[in-house]
TrEMBL record:
Residues 5-123 form the Gfo/Idh/MocA-like oxidoreductase N-terminal domain. InterPro entries: Gfo/Idh/MocA-like_OxRdtase_N (IPR000683), Gfo/Idh/MocA_domain (IPR050984), GFO_IDH_MocA-like_dom (IPR055170), NAD(P)-bd_dom_sf (IPR036291). GO terms for molecular function: nucleotide binding; oxidoreductase activity. It comes from Massilia cavernae. The keyword Oxidoreductase applies. SUPFAM superfamilies: Glyceraldehyde-3-phosphate dehydrogenase-like, C-terminal domain, NAD(P)-binding Rossmann-fold domains. This is Gfo/Idh/MocA family oxidoreductase.
Length: 330
């Protein structure tokens, strides 16, 4: 392929707009097509991002079939991720699929198996895993400055004042705090401490039958522990701290918007390290996907498909413990 990576987007909602905006900050990337279930929505989206009307489709399949698309970003509701990814891969396209990657591990495994059979690039769009602040945290851990990391604490929550049919609380659309927000601390905890060996969870189930608050404690291979929570009832600090014997590192402000990290030592000394943060933060995952395509990689070494499958399995276990089931689990 050429150095220019041509993107198609499925969906025209908030996340799709955030990603399309980020493509403007992504070197060597261009948005060529958008698909929606409604052509008027696609045309409105396209007008906003400078696409000609003929590149705006009232069909997802049209994006999978388009010859001027190298990779498709899937920004549809959770419940459609697996089917949309299978469709895109069936059209011979690379795929960057928004989190949660699927509704459960079974669905995720079907998508991964197809990508591997077709030898097409596939990655979960866990954008926080590619932030420079997280890279700096990993660098400091690797230096031994805080000692071996043995604990992560992380939370993510906001107060969602939405109608019962809104996707955040609608079980038919995969609603709930865990799949929408809990996946973020879960994924970063695994990135810092390694694979999860066990998890224990509790939750508050809301009136629509989905979780509105969930807390979970994980033990990682090697014995380190993470304590994570998510909420759509409370605006939490959204902080992440990783600790070792000699100190801790904190991703400042909200960890998904961190423009600096703080390192604190057992002697009371500390320092702050500024880290880059371009635009709305989504550009970094687009850069990684583009790099992988240019280098002929079928998956990112920083967000492997095996890890995505493992994390989907952890989500399944948490949901089983808190009694949260979706139609896709039948």
């Amino acid at each position: 392929m050429t150095d220019l990576v041509r993107w198609g987007i499925l969906g025209t909602g908030k996340i799709a707009r955030a990603f399309a905006t980020a493509l403007k900050d992504t070197p060597g990337a261009v948005l060529t097509r958008v698909g929606s279930r409604n052509v008027a929505s696609a045309e409105s989206f396209g007008s906003e991002f400078g696409l000609p009307m003929e590149a705006c489709h009232g069909s997802y399949q049209a994006i999978a079939d388009a010859e001027d698309v190298d990779i498709i970003y899937i920004a549809t509701p959770h419940t459609a991720h697996a089917a949309n990814a299978i469709m895109a891969l069936g059209g011979g396209k690379a795929v960057l699929c928004e989190k949660p990657f699927a509704m459960n591990r079974r669905e995720a495994a079907e998508v991964v198996a197809l990508a591997r059979a077709k030898k097409l690039f596939l990655m979960e769009a866990m954008w926080t895993r590619f932030l420079p602040a997280l890279d700096e945290v990993k660098r400091i851990i690797a230096s031994g400055e805080i000692g071996a990391p043995v604990q992560v604490t992380a939370d993510f929550g906001f107060a969602a004042d939405v109608d019962p049919d809104h996707r955040l609380v609608n079980p038919e659309l995969g609603g709930g705090a865990l799949l929408d927000l809990g996946i973020y601390p879960l994924s970063i905890a695994a990135a810092l401490l390694g694979p999860v060996s066990s998890v224990r969870a509790q939750a508050e189930i809301g009136p629509t039958g989905v979780d509105v608050q969930t807390g979970f404690v994980m033990v990682h291979e090697g014995g380190a522990m993470s304590v994570c929570s998510c909420s759509i009832r409370a605006r939490t600090p959204a902080e992440l701290t990783v600790s070792g014997q000699h100190g801790h590192v904190r991703m400042n402000t909200m960890f998904h918007r961190a423009k600096s990290i703080s390192v604190s030592h057992e002697d009371g000394s500390s320092r702050t390290v500024p880290t880059p943060y371009v635009g709305n933060g989504y550009a970094y995952e687009a850069v990684e996907a583009g790099r992988c395509l240019r280098e002929g990689l079928l998956e990112s070494p920083h967000m492997t498909l095996d890890e995505t499958l493992a994390l989907m399995g952890v989500l399944d276990t948490i949901r089983e413990q808190i009694g949260l089931r979706y139609v896709a689990d039948a």
